[in-house]
Every structure is written in structure tokens, then in C-alpha cells.
From TrEMBL:
Species per Swiss-Prot/TrEMBL record: Capsaspora owczarzaki (strain ATCC 30864)
Name of the featured protein: Phospholipid-transporting ATPase
PROSITE patterns: ATPASE_E1_E2
Reported cofactor(s): Mg(2+)
InterPro entries named among the record's database cross-references: ATPase_P-typ_cyto_dom_N, ATPase_P-typ_P_site, ATPase_P-typ_TM_dom_sf, ATPase_P-typ_transduc_dom_A_sf, ATPase_P-type_domA, HAD-like_sf, HAD_sf, P-type_ATPase_IV
Superkingdom of the organism of origin: Eukaryota
Length: 1354
């Protein structure tokens, strides 16, 4: 090994022989950074090539790896064990094929699906790896030869290669841009990141001045060094530095001042893999991360495995059935051993050995275990997977979720969690782009203390209209205010006029400076309309707004912005004749009332969610501010105002009215400190604050605009600190933030802007309907307090007085926050006491008495007024207070929040959004970092909780008034309302118990949460929730790609949850219950036959029948239950309270499962004993064929198939032609297969079925058993519908009515009257009847959202 190579390895932190194999004991690479040497392959030998591998298997590893993965599941292991035991003839009572065939079939289906998916991944990998790429290589591959451009495959790229890119090329790896085709000191290029975040707008990247100045020949021979971070998934961070000479790196580390300082690299110089080069002829870049070590590759993680609440219930039932199976197997097995021991002498023909080995005692128990192995349905997982995939397809195909404007619909990324959509209890929503359209329109502004544009406070009648609007008919936008236009023109003319010939007021110069900051301080990229439309045609983007430059047509200039706010601000400045024309490298060109001004961007102080502001340091290149340095700032008021003059911050004076230079004739802002400037700045701030509050009350988004001059000396000193911070390889973000804060002081406040972001279509109606469905909302937004309150009120998140009350949580310390929360808890306790609740209800109802009488008759009025209307509490908390609450007292804050109908968190960060979701999801646990989960329960705690839950379940099953008896069980809907209306005097005791439970670590995921957002700042919240939904918005597709479901608009949530979620839950619940039922049913027949066979463990059915029972004969009809609808979609939308049934888990719980168990027991007994009873008196069929077990079992088996198909038919609410084909066609298929089996001489069924077909007793027996098994179900169903209907059945009755209209009061009232005294269903009926009558009254006075135009009962 050469000296250079040894030095290089030491530089990279490796032992000298680590990569050559000389040191076998070398530790794994723990380097925090990597060093990349350009054009030096030997020094980069330790890095991987650019081969992309996303596939899971190879041709040789597929079978072993896939089998290992499949048999990692408990169910598959269980059936494999059963199949292996059946290979021993002494143990198995049936042919081993009864288990091996279904097991192999199911494993093969899963393996085939995996093979197809992985094949597609292989094809995608091959396509990406074979793309041609131009790189610098030694000519002819000869060492010492000059480097030339050569075309190679993308997979052959190595770290350190120099890559040549052309326009429209896709980046094959992560690379640092060195030079571009752009002219100027800094090489500018444009990239499109649609493959990463879905944003189609162009983003700029800059090459370094040193490398951009090099010629192409110099770059071919470039041997610089890049020191960067080790591969990591942080897409927007690249803390690195570049040394133009490799020798400088060692010298810089030992003595930083002995060599030239390295050039700082950041994400502004990094071209990411998967992005496309746009509007740039060519670019030259240095590869730094390749293959799966790129930023994109590091972000490719396996999606988290999500278990639905129903899946957990199914797993619990499977465990119960397994325990029951073991109990029965060994009980009956050892019973058989006792019988054998007692009868071994009398029943000599059984050949029981006189002396038995110890293991003989386990033979019969194991035979019983194999005999009862059917109790756990082997086809359950495959059946449920098919159903879940179908639900996802239904969502993708739903035209009601299609958006014609975007030409996009809903899409289910996850195909396994649709049932959770039917059990949502809490929805966490972003505001901007989620509840609002994210289409920004500049409305008003305040400049130098004066307001421009006419204001109109929202009225009550406007606040709740379906299409939200806060503006009056006489509204005047600030951009149409002639006063403002005149002042801007006046200041622009004065700044260009000779000394003394023209002057302007301070307000005019402030207005000009205000819009100049908007036109310069941003990241917007202007493009010609031709470029924009070519970009739109090739990538599906739509550019609707055009702004012209002087002398250009109106459609010649298009602004492309990554943020709708920036686009709106730049367009607002353009409308005031201060237009952004070009961005060429660091030079920004604007037009001010026809006069061209140019500014050099010296530094960009980037926006972040923590800073909440953006600044730029500029130097005037052309125009009245030539050679003057200014700091332009825009941001949130809580971060900008504290840094302005007139506050406690250190001041640097600024006189807004420029003095006129006699020598140059150009305006120049004075930088002399003027004490009066502080007083004037304080006046501006005091005048601006109330305007900001007014804008917030209107629901507008506000930004403060400020500036200050910067001296050359100050900037030079600050720039040194900036370069040092940018060159730091450790803790760069903190150092940059401190450096930014140092210069962002003493700002002169110019004013504030107010931008309107209207609510999306039908947002208030959607939220209102979901709240009626028992779902509670939390709004998590970065907006200020007043804006959040206004939007929450407008979209029906908050209930106005007298029915609602807002509870603000305030404080900066843990003690203050605790006192605030405890005060609100005591207030809630008092207000929910019976006497206070009744008084509030009387007051609220009396207020609406006049309206009710005018819209309803006396009967309906009495129903409507008799129901108490409890106050709905809303909690609001700001980000700084929320941080204290989450860190110091999360359980106490959660206790208050769970009492509220709505919680609003404003001024929150993305991490806080995820923490709030986890707080509710994990019942008080707040993760310190993304991905953290609560500590697992110990075995003793699990056993304790299991016993407690079992006792509660037993009580609910035995009690006639238990929560499980009601259609709306504990924790959902009406029962939750009843809990809130009950006496809450034990609030402190319940909270103490909750705290003790949390301190013991007994946190459980009990509340099903849904998070919906549209931007990258919502990704952490979306991924934390049980269900994540992303909106295809204007902030890109980051949220949509990270979510389980993507939708085009917020109102899709209504259909996604109430229709798809509810149907999915109900359907899967039935599929799971029926799968257990049919398996337990056939196993119980076997078990009962064991009584008659002396506990021998003999099988009643033959092996062929058992082989095809679970999958072929009974598995196919239930799959088509995916088309079932218990009630019509219109009925669900009319009565959203029906969602409470699925939300409370009432389609799959202990009581329902036990009913199915009893049904299986009854039907098994009828099937076996009716068959044996009828054929017991016969010795032969009518043709003389002697009866044997094979013949009798076929009779029972045929009846069992009829019974199971009848069960499916009885439980099906909606019959499509596919259901008919699956159900009735299955009967025909059974007989055809029986006939074919009877034609095979080697089978035990040979010729038997033909003899049975001709025997009338056979048909009468099958018919009698089917009727006897199903008739009681029909009777019970009729009784329930007539006397104890639940709300779902009530709506079904309304749908079947011939009245022609949906008269809920007339249809439901008789059922409440006829219900037996004390019946829980009767009480529920009365509640539901009252609700229905109330809703009809509300509908008649126009308070209820419009029902579908087509009557349900047409």
C-alpha cells in the first residue's frame, strides 16, 4: 500500500489496511463524515457503485426467504405443525392432504403475489441501472491518459466521478454541481423535484464561484475533495465543504489558518437522485452519494406494519379458539385414554395392549388435536386479504372522490387498514391547504401604520354559509386602492428625480419599500410563458397566472413558486408595478414603475419552521439604491416584531425618506442613527398590532415586512461568521441560526400583509356531519391564535355560544399551565353537573323556540325541546404553552382535551403535531423522537389487564343494561354523550386512577386516530396516526405519498369514513365471524361424533370432504360479501349517527362472537343428530346398498354445505348478480364435484353420490336439516325487527317502506312504543326517534345540510 493511500485512509478515519483485508479485526466504519476525492477511483474504492437494488429476492433466495417470511406468522406455523403431525399414521385420523393441500395452496398464493411484486421491482431496477450517463473517464482506460467524456450505464457510476448532464436529464445519483451553462459569477441551474416531493415548480441550484470559473478541460482533470456527512436520509440538509486541492484538507485540519478556507456547500449545491435538470442546457457535477446510499435511497424504508383494531380483535379470538381447542383436545383425549383403560378387557376386539408405554397416553389427545384443527380457519388470512384489497380498489374506483379540476381521484396506498376507517374516533387536521384551498389572494395591507383596502368583519349569517366567505359586497382589495397606487408611483418618481425637483412623504417611501421587499425577498423563479407551458404539458402542471414585464405581453412571464404565499406576494408587488423580471444567479432584476432595478443577493437567511421568517442581504447594482446594502425580512409577527425598532431590541436607525445625493442625483437611504426613528418605529408598531389582530379575526394569513440598512463593515464582519458557520461540519444549524439572529436586529417595520385562503368546498358540512357521527376534531396549525379561532368557527369545528364555550390554556411555566388546566377541568365538572346542564339546556332551547314553532307542529316541537343540549367545550392552546404541557403534564392536558369536543393547537411545529397525535393515540405517552412507542407491558400487567377485561366482558354479557347490549357501546356516540351528561363528581378520582395507570406503563392504543394534511410539515403527523390521509395539494405530494390514502379534497373525508370505512368494517367483521363459525361448526360435528365413537378420535367425514370444505365449498361465497351494503349510502349520509355502530366495534365483539358460537353449536348438533336419527332406522338405501359411515357422513356433509350457504344468504343485505352466482352457483358446483369424485374408482366415494342422488330420503334429510338450522334465525330476526330493532335495522325498515319519503318520526315512533319495558333497544329507539324528529325539524328550517335530491323511497 502506497504512502498516499495510507494517508488517505487515515484521513477517512480507517485503519491503513482496513479495506485491503490486512486487518481482519477492524471495527465497522463509524465515521460521522465521508471524504470524496474527485477523479481518483483508488481513493474512493471503499464506496459502493451506483447499482440500485429495490428488490427483495433473487432467483436463488426467493424460495427460502419467502418461506421463512411466511412461516414467521403464527397461523402458518400452527398449520405446518398440524400438517407434520398428520404425517404419522398412528396419530392422524384423516389423510394428511386435508391440511397439506390448503396450506400449500395458501402459501403458493402468497408467494405468487410476492413474486409478481418483486418481478416488477426487478424491472424498475434494471431500467434505472441501464440508463446512459456521460462521465469523465481515462481515454482508453490507460493510466496517465487524459480524461474524456464517455457514456456508461448509470449503475457503473462511482463516488468521485465527474458527470455531464444535459437539459431534461434525470440525476442518476446525488451530486454537487460544479459548473453550469448559465453565465455570471455563479452557475445557476434549475431542477424539478416532482419524483421526491411531488412539487412541479422549479427550484434553483448554484455552483460555487471557484468551480464555475473553471473551464471544462480543468474540470475533467479536477482533483478537489468534498468533505460531507455520511449517507443519511436528510433530504434538505447537506452540511459539507469543498477543498480544491487534496493537500489542503490535512493542512486545514491541523492548522486552519495556514491554507485557504474551504468553500461551504449546502443543499443549494446538491442535485438529488431522481430530480430532473430543467431550463438548463448543461451542468457538470461531482458524484458524492451513489446507489442505495443516496438521499432517496436512504429514505426508502419498509412501510410500517399497521394492525387495525379489528385485526387485533381477530387475533384475540384466534388465541381464544386455540386455547379452547387445546382444552377440548386434551380433555376428550385423556377421556378416551380412560375409556380404553376401562374397556380394554371387555372390548377385546379393540386390541388394546395390556401394557402401554408412557407415550401411548398422548396418542388419543394428539389425534383429537388433529381432529379439531379445523377450529381455526386456515383460509381466514387469505380471505381477509382479498377483501381488504377489494376495499382499496373500491376507493380507487369511486368517481365521487374524483376531482375534475386536478384530474385526479382518491388512491389507497395501504390495502390493509380500511376497517380502521370505520372506527375513527379522533381526526387531526391541518388548516392551510387542508381545510382551506391554499389558493392565496392578497387582500389587505397595513403600511407605516395606515391600512389599505376596505375591511368587513364577518357576520353571523356569513360565518356558517356552505361556501365560506368573509367579505362584503363592497369589499375593496388593497391592490385596487388608488391611494396606495398613487403613493407607490409618487415615491418611485421622487427616488429618480434630481435633488429638490420632487419630494414624497414618508408613507409613500414606506409603501415603495414594502413592495420592493416583496419583489426581492423570496425564492420565486420567473419564467417565460413558453417555458412554463412546455413544462406544464410534459409534467401535468397548470400555470394559470401570468405577469408581464415592461414591453411584454400579459402572458409572457410566469412565476413559479414552491409556496403559494410567496407567489401571491410577488404577484401583489407586480400589480403595484413593482415586478420581478429575472433571476440570473445571484442577480435579481425588478421593474419599479417602468424603471429597472437590479440587486445582488449576498446572503439568503432561509425560512424554517423554527425561525418563521426569511431574510436576504442585498446590494444595489442598478437603480436608486446602487452600492447600498440592505437586509430585507418577512415573517410571522411573533418573530419579526421583537426584532424591530421601537421594541426592547437593540436599534439601528433608519430614515425611510431617502436623502438626495448632489453628486449622483440618486436617492440613498441614510444610515445615520436618528433617535426620532425609534419613536416613529414605535408608533408604526403600535398602529400595526391592532391591524394584525383584525386581519387574524377575519381568518387572514399575515406576514410582517421589515428592512434595515447594513454597513459594509458590519456585513464584512458578519460574513466571516456566516462562512465559518456554513463551513462547520458539526452543529451547523445551531450556528447558522445564531448567526442569522445576530444581523436580524434593529429592523424598521414597514407594515404587514394579509392574504386570504378560502375554505375548501363543503368543509363546514363535512365537519358537521362527521361530528354527528361521534368523531372529535383537533386542528393543528402554525397560524396565530385569532386566525385559528376564526377558521375553526367558520368551518363548524367550534360551536358558538350559547351551545359552545372556548377554554384557552395559557402559561409559560409548568405551574401556570397546570393551574390553567385544572381551572378548566373544575369548570367542565361544574357545567356537566345535572342542574347546570338542565339550566343551560332550557336557556338554549328557549332561544330557538320561536323558530321551532314556525317550522314544526306541536308534536315534533315537544320532541325537539325535550332533549337537553349539553354545552360543547373547545380547548385552544398555543405552541409555546403546548410544549410545556407535553413535557411536564401530558396526562393532565389529555384529561382536559378528552372532555372537549374540539381542540385547537396553534403556532405548532411539525414535531409537536406528531406528539399531539401520539398523546391521544397512546393515552398520555409523548414520544421524544419520531418512531418512539410506549414501553411494552410486563407479563404480570398483561395478565392483570386480561383478567380485568375478561371480568368486564363477563359483566357486560350477563347484564341487561351493559354497554355492550346497546347499539352504541362504551366509548362511542350516545354512550359517550351519556357519560358526559352524568354526574362528574368523581372526576378527580378518575384522573388519579388514570395517572397511576400511566405511571405503571399500562398505556394502550385504544383510540383510533386519523390525521389529514397536505404539506411536508404534516408528514410526521400523518405517519404517527392509525390512518394517514394526504391531500394532493399545492404544496406538493409529500403528504400524499407518505399517507395511507390520498384524496383530492377535504370533503372526500366524509365519504371515505362514513361510506368506505363503515362498509369495510361491517363486511370484514362478518367475513371473520363467518370464517370462525364455519370452522367451529364442522369441528363440533367431529367432536360430537367422538362421543359416539368412544373418544377414539376417528373422523366422521372423509378426507376429500375436509380438504375442500374451508377453501372451495364455503370460502368462495363469503368473498363476495364485499359487495354487501347493510343500508344505502344515502341513508348513511342522512343519518351519520349510524357510524357510531361501527365506531364502537359492535359488529365484532365478545357478545356477537358468542352468538355465532352458539349458532355453530346448535347447527352442528342438528346436522349430526338429525342425520343419525333419520338413518338409524335404516340398514340400506332404497336400492339395497348397505349403509356405512361413509354414506351417512356424505348426507351430513351435503346438509352442512347447504346450511353454510344459507347462513351467507341470510346475512347478506344486498344481492348483486355476483352474489347470486357465488351463493347459488356454489350449490351446483358442489354437486358437480361430488359427481366427479364418484367417478374415480380409487376414492371411497366411488358411485356413492349417484346412489344418494336417486334416494328421496337423502333429499328430504338435507332439506329438513337446512330448515331446522336456519328457521330459528329467521324467527329471531323477525322478532328483533318487530320488537327490538337497533338503529341500523330501523333505517333498513325505512328503506323498505313504501311511503315515498323518509319520514323518520312516523316510521321510528311505533317501534319505541312497542318495545318491551326496560329493553335497552327500546330506550335506544326512543333516543333515536327523538333525534330523527329533531333532525327533520332542523331540516325544515334550513339548519341541516341539504339531503340528496332523490328520495330514498322513490
Amino acid at each position: 500500500m502506497s504512502f498516499v493511500q495510507r494517508s488517505w485512509r487515515r484521513l477517512r478515519g480507517l485503519p491503513a489496511a482496513a479495506e485491503s483485508g490486512e486487518d481482519d479485526d477492524s471495527a465497522a466504519d463509524q465515521r460521522p463524515t465521508r471524504v470524496v476525492a474527485a477523479n481518483q477511483a483508488a481513493l474512493n474504492a471503499g464506496f459502493p457503485d451506483n447499482r440500485i437494488v429495490n428488490s427483495k429476492y433473487t432467483l436463488f433466495t426467493f424460495i427460502p426467504f419467502n418461506l421463512y417470511e411466511q412461516f414467521s406468522r403464527f397461523m402458518n406455523r400452527y398449520f405446518l405443525l398440524i400438517a407434520i403431525l398428520q404425517l404419522f399414521p398412528t396419530l392422524t385420523p384423516v389423510n394428511p392432504l386435508t391440511t397439506w393441500v390448503p396450506l400449500i395452496f395458501i402459501v403458493a398464493i402468497s408467494a405468487a403475489k410476492e413474486a409478481v411484486d418483486d418481478r416488477l421491482r426487478h424491472i424498475a431496477d434494471a431500467r434505472a441501472n441501464s440508463r446512459p450517463v456521460t462521465v469523465a473517464r481515462l481515454e482508453g482506460g490507460v493510466e496517465g491518459a487524459p480524461r474524456v467524456w464517455q457514456t456508461i450505464k448509470a449503475s457503473d457510476i462511482h463516488v468521485g466521478d465527474i458527470i455531464y448532464l444535459e437539459n431534461e436529464n434525470e440525476l442518476p445519483c446525488d451530486a454537487v454541481v460544479l459548473k453550469t451553462s448559465a453565465e455570471g459569477a455563479e452557475g445557476l441551474c434549475y431542477i424539478q423535484t416532482a419524483n421526491l416531493d411531488g412539487e412541479t415548480d422549479l427550484k434553483t441550484r448554484l455552483s460555487l464561484k471557484d468551480t464555475h470559473a473553471m473551464s471544462e478541460e480543468a474540470l475533467l482533470a479536477f482533483t478537489g475533495v468534498v468533505e460531507c456527512a455520511a449517507p443519511n436520509p436528510e433530504v434538505y440538509r447537506f452540511d459539507s465543504r469543498l477543498f480544491t486541492d487534496i493537500r489542503h484538507l490535512n493542512a486545514y485540519r491541523s492548522s486552519p489558518h495556514s491554507v485557504p478556507a474551504p468553500a461551504s456547500l449546502s443543499s443549494a449545491q446538491l442535485l438529488l437522485q431522481g430530480t430532473h435538470l430543467r431550463n438548463t442546457a448543461w451542468a457538470i457535477a461531482l458524484a458524492v452519494y451513489t446507489g442505495n446510499e443516496t438521499k432517496l435511497g436512504m429514505n426508502k424504508t419498509a412501510p410500517p406494519i399497521k394492525w387495525t383494531k379489528l385485526d387485533q380483535s381477530v387475533n384475540a379470538v384466534s388465541a381464544f379458539v386455540f386455547c379452547l381447542q387445546l382444552l377440548l383436545s386434551f380433555s376428550f383425549g385423556f377421556g378416551g385414554d380412560v375409556v380404553d383403560e376401562q374397556e380394554s378387557h371387555e372390548a377385546w376386539y379393540l386390541l388394546v395392549p395390556a401394557v402401554r408405554d408412557w407415550y401411548d397416553w398422548f396418542v388419543i389427545p394428539l389425534r383429537m388435536l388433529l381432529l379439531l384443527s379445523l377450529m381455526i380457519p386456515i383460509s381466514l388470512k387469505v380471505t381477509m386479504d382479498i377483501c381488504k384489497y377489494s376495499y382499496a380498489v373500491f376507493i380507487d374506483w369511486d368517481l365521487a372522490l374524483w376531482d375534475d379540476r386536478q384530474n385526479i381521484g382518491a388512491h389507497a396506498t395501504s390495502t390493509a387498514i380500511s376497517e380502521d376507517l370505520g372506527q375513527i374516533e379522533y381526526i387531526f387536521t391541518d388548516k392551510t391547504g387542508t381545510l382551506t384551498e391554499n389558493v392565496m389572494e392578497f387582500k389587505f395591507c397595513t403600511i407605516h401604520g395606515s391600512t389599505y383596502g376596505s375591511l368587513s368583519m364577518p357576520s353571523t349569517e356569513h360565518a356558517n354559509v356552505p361556501q365560506h366567505s368573509t367579505w362584503s359586497d363592497g369589499e375593496l382589495s388593497a391592490l385596487d386602492d388608488e391611494r396606495l397606487k398613487a403613493m407607490v408611483a409618487e415615491a418611485a418618481s421622487a427616488s429618480l428625480s434630481p435633488r429638490g425637483s420632487m419630494s414624497a412623504s414618508a408613507d409613500a417611501f414606506a409603501a415603495l419599500s414594502f413592495f420592493r421587499v416583496l419583489a426581492v425577498c423570496h425564492t420565486v423563479v420567473p419564467a417565460t410563458s413558453m417555458q412554463a407551458h412546455q413544462h406544464a404539458r410534459s409534467h401535468g402542471a397548470a400555470f394559470e397566472h401570468h405577469v408581464s414585464a415592461p414591453g411584454q405581453d400579459e402572458s409572457e412571464l410566469v412565476y413559479q413558486a414552491s409556496s403559494p404565499d410567496e407567489e401571491a406576494l410577488v404577484k401583489a408587488a407586480a400589480k403595484m408595478r413593482i415586478k420581478l423580471l429575472r433571476r440570473e444567479g445571484s442577480i435579481v432584476t425588478i421593474s419599479v414603475c417602468g424603471s429597472v432595478e437590479k440587486y445582488e443577493i449576498l446572503a439568503v437567511l432561509e425560512f424554517s419552521s423554527d425561525r418563521k421568517r426569511m431574510s436576504v442581504v442585498v446590494r444595489g447594482v442598478e437603480g436608486p439604491l446602487t452600492q447600498k446594502l440592505f437586509l430585507f425580512t418577512k415573517g410571522a409577527d411573533d418573530t419579526v416584531l421583537p426584532r424591530c425598532l421601537g421594541t426592547d431590541s437593540a436599534a439601528v436607525g433608519l430614515n425611510l425618506e431617502p436623502s438626495i445625493s448632489a453628486d449622483s442625483g440618486e436617492a440613498a437611504a441614510s444610515t445615520a442613527f436618528d433617535p426620532s426613528a425609534v419613536l416613529g418605529a414605535a408608533r408604526v408598531i403600535n398602529a400595526t398590532r391592532p391591524q394584525l389582530e383584525t386581519y387574524a379575526q377575519l381568518g387572514l394569513r399575515t406576514l410582517c415586512i421589515a428592512q434595515r440598512p447594513v454597513s459594509e463593515a458590519e456585513f464584512a464582519e458578519w460574513q466571516k461568521q456566516l462562512l465559518a458557520a456554513k463551513s462547520a461540519m458539526q452543529d451547523r444549524d445551531r450556528q447558522l441560526a445564531a448567526c442569522y439572529a445576530q444581523i436580524e436586529q434593529g429592523l424598521a417595520l414597514l407594515g404587514a400583509s394579509a392574504i386570504e385562503d378560502k375554505l375548501q368546498d363543503q368543509v363546514p358540512q363535512t365537519i358537521s356531519m362527521l361530528r354527528q357521527a361521534g368523531i372529535r376534531f383537533w386542528m393543528l396549525t402554525g397560524d396565530k391564535y385569532a386566525t385559528a379561532v376564526q377558521i375553526a368557527t367558520s368551518c363548524n369545528l367550534m360551536t358558538p355560544a350559547p351551545h359552545g364555550e372556548l377554554l384557552p390554556v395559557r402559561g409559560t411555566t409548568a405551574e401556570q399551565v397546570r393551574a390553567s388546566v385544572q381551572e378548566h377541568l373544575l369548570h367542565v365538572q361544574r357545567m356537566l353537573s345535572p342542574e347546570n346542564r338542565h339550566s343551560a339546556a332550557l336557556y338554549a332551547n328557549s332561544e330557538e323556540e320561536t323558530h321551532r314553532r314556525s317550522a314544526s307542529d306541536a308534536g315534533r316541537e315537544s320532541h325537539s325541546r325535550s332533549q337537553p343540549l349539553p354545552i360543547q367545550f373547545s380547548v385552544i392552546i398555543e405552541g409555546s404553552t403546548l410544549r410545556v404541557a407535553l413535557e411536564a403534564l401530558p396526562e393532565l392536558f389529555l384529561q382536559l382535551s378528552l372532555q372537549a369536543h374540539t381542540v385547537i393547537c396553534c403556532r405548532v411545529t411539525p414535531q409537536q403535531k406528531a406528539q399531539v397525535v401520539a398523546l391521544v393515540k397512546y393515552d398520555g405517552f409523548v414520544p421524544a423522537s419520531p418512531g418512539d412507542t410506549p414501553p411494552p407491558l410486563s407479563w404480570s400487567e398483561r395478565i392483570s389487564e386480561g383478567i380485568s377485561e375478561g371480568w368486564q366482558t363477563l359483566r357486560s354479557c350477563c347484564s341487561s343494561t351493559g354497554a355492550s347490549d346497546t347499539p352504541f357501546g362504551a366509548g362511542s356516540g350516545f354512550s359517550r354523550l351519556r357519560e358526559e351528561e352524568s354526574d362528574s363528581s368523581d372526576l378527580d378520582a378518575r384522573f388519579a386512577n388514570h395517572q397511576r395507570a400511566v405511571s405503571r406503563g399500562t398505556r394502550r392504543t385504544t383510540r383510533v386516530t386519523l390525521a389529514i394534511g397536505d404539506g411536508g410539515n404534516d408528514v410526521s403527523m400523518i405517519q404517527e396516526a392509525h390512518i394517514g390521509i394526504g391531500i394532493n395539494g399545492k404544496e406538493g405530494l409529500q403528504a400524499a405519498r407518505a399517507a395511507d390514502y390520498s384524496v383530492p379534497f377535504f370533503k372526500a373525508l366524509r365519504r371515505l369514513v362514513l361510506i368506505h370505512g363503515r362498509y369495510s368494517y361491517n363486511r370484514t367483521s362478518f367475513v371473520a365471524l363467518y370464517s370462525f363459525h364455519k370452522s367451529i361448526y364442522i369441528a363440533l360435528i367431529q367432536l360430537m361424533f367422538a362421543f359416539l365413537s368412544g373418544f377414539s378420535g376417528a373422523s366422521f367425514f372423509n378426507s376429500i370432504s375436509l380438504t375442500f370444505y374451508n377453501i372451495l365449498f364455503t370460502g368462495i361465497p363469503v368473498i363476495f360479501y364485499i359487495f354487501d351494503r347493510d343500508v344505502e349510502e344515502e341513508s348513511v349520509m342522512t343519518f351519520p349517527e349510524l357510524y357510531l355502530w361501527s365506531q364502537g366495534g359492535h359488529a365484532f365483539h365478545v357478545r356477537i362472537f358468542m352468538r355465532w358460537m352458539v349458532r355453530a353449536l346448535y347447527q352442528a348438533a342438528v346436522t349430526l343428530f338429525f342425520t343419525l336419527g333419520i338413518y338409524n332406522a335404516q340398514f340400506a338405501l332404497h336400492d339395497g346398498t348397505l349403509l356405512d359411515q361413509e354414506t351417512i357422513s356424505l348426507v351430513a356433509y351435503t346438509a352442512a354445505i347447504f346450511v353454510q350457504i344459507g347462513n351467507v344468504a341470510l346475512e347478506t343485505h344486498t344481492f348483486t348478480w355476483l352474489n347470486h352466482l357465488a351463493i347459488w352457483g356454489q350449490l351446483a358446483a358442489v354437486f358437480v364435484l361430488f359427481a366427479l369424485a364418484s367417478l374415480v374408482p380409487t376414492l371411497s366415494m366411488y358411485s356413492l353420490m349417484f346412489k344418494l342422488f336417486s334416494d328421496p330420503v337423502y333429499w328430504l334429510t338435507v332439506l329438513l336439516i337446512t330448515v331446522a338450522c336456519l328457521f330459528p334465525l329467521v324467527i329471531f330476526r323477525a322478532y328483533a325487527l318487530g320488537f327490538n330493532p337497533n338503529p341500523v335495522e330501523m333505517v333498513q325498515l325505512m328503506q323498505r317502506s313504501n311511503s315515498g319519503r323518509l319520514d323518520a318520526h312516523r316510521v321510528l315512533e311505533p317501534f319505541a312504543a312497542r318495545g318491551p319495558t326496560g329493553s335497552v333497544y327500546s330506550a335506544t329507539s326512543r333516543v333515536y326517534t327523538t333525534y330523527a324528529a329533531t333532525q327533520m325539524t332542523r331540516e325544515s328550517i334550513g339548519h341541516r345540510p341539504a339531503s340528496p335530491s332523490t328520495p330514498l323511497l322513490a
